[in-house]
Amino acid sequence: MAVRDLRDLNVWWELADPDHQHHGRARHYWEAESHAQVAFCRTTMLGLLRLLTHPKVIRGAPFTPAEAWNIYRAFMALPEVACLPENPRMESRFAAWTDRSGFIAHRWTDEWLASHAVATASRLVSFDSDFRAFEGLSFLHLSSVVGAIPEFDGSYRFEMHGSWVPSVHLLVPSTPVVLPSSDTKPECAGEAP
Q1: What is the pTM of this model?
Q2: pLDDT for 56-89, tens place per residue?
Q3: In the 3-class helix/strand/coil scheme, how is 52-95 assigned residue by residue?
Q4: Distance between CA 73 and CA 127 in Å, rounded?
Q5: pLDDT digits (tens, 9 = 90+) for 94-130
Q6: Is 147 left (phi over 0), alpha (psi -120 to 50) or beta?
Q7: Rounded to 10 degrees, what is the CA torsion of 152, 157, 158, 161?
């Protein structure tokens, strides 16, 4: 039984971007469907940092690396958010799933995330329905249907040392979160459960 949610990069991204077409669905998931603990792993952390600093993804106005770190730290400052370290059991599961006939090369990262979720007793949460194919994986597929879910109203923001993060509103269940100092980096260290 899953004890936490390991979110795919697409969920973290849709939460961070109020203009994204799936932001409302991601927000509804966090407010009504998520486990009490939600997690990054090193792969999703790196993916979020990469997207936040990519000019094409951020519509020509990418964040600096320091700003991207602060957005990640804002998520990590929330009591329900953790970063799962790698687990020694992951590699054998990963190898078994990737060393089979029919493996598709563009799925390396999906296979790794699914292995991470299984090895850490986490439910994988994603907008990507391909995760349904993994035997033994606890998976929540977030469909893109928003329906009656309220759209982002701009009331959630993160404060960065007295200044507002420009153009990004991160979803949190409460209002402003003061970020930790820039020399405090959340760690994904140690051995996962």
Answers
A1: 0.77
A2: 887 778 889 999 999 999 999 999 999 999 888 8
A3: HCCCCCCCCCCCCHHHHHHHHHHHHHCCCEEEECCCCCHHHHHH
A4: 23
A5: 998 888 888 888 889 999 999 999 999 999 999 999 9
A6: left
A7: 160
